[in-house]
Amino acid sequence: MTEARHWLLGLAAVGLLATGCTTSPTPTPESPATSEKPSRPADLAVAGKPDTELCELLTAEQQSQLGVGRPTPDSEVNETTGVGFPGCGWLTPPGEDPPYDITVYAVPESTKDFMDRLSPAFPETEASYTVAGFPAKQAQRGESLEQLGCMVGVDVADGQTLGVFVGPGLMQVMSNKDICDKAKQAAEAAVATLRSQG
């Protein structure tokens, strides 16, 4: 998981949210941006799952479809970065072209807070969409770091994010679009498995 480790080591600090005030003594209704909650088809718990359980989020069939295998608990990243998110990683078979790895993380924070760590993001591949009905954000690090990989954060419950990262092999032969497309596919597979687990 070298690419994932490099990417996590390059995480930027989350910026402080600006707050405003009003001189009116009359209470005003909350704006939609602060009062609306994300719409999800269900709440899926990932926070607190150990990395061994995260290794079950890509079934053998899904691994075959994504072209990866050899699930490995990714506690090494946690020790290296101190981020503390349990994870599991899968690699393409030796000699497979193009080589890449997929890592799934259980993130005990909101998708916005988690994905804000990639700020400033690479604008060409930054996107918002849904994964099986769950709000999701996609981003790569900007500042010429986009080739380290692509992260998709899926809002699975209040204060819980399923993070799915795809990092290219050392030769970096995948385009940014292909890296992010693979991350989205992996996120869709992991969410499908998580929903099937109940």
UniProtKB/TrEMBL annotation:
It comes from the Bacteria. Residues 20-36 have a biased composition (Low complexity). It holds the Pfam family DUF3558. Residues 20-47, 64-87 are annotated as: Disordered. This is DUF3558 domain-containing protein. Coiled coil: none annotated.
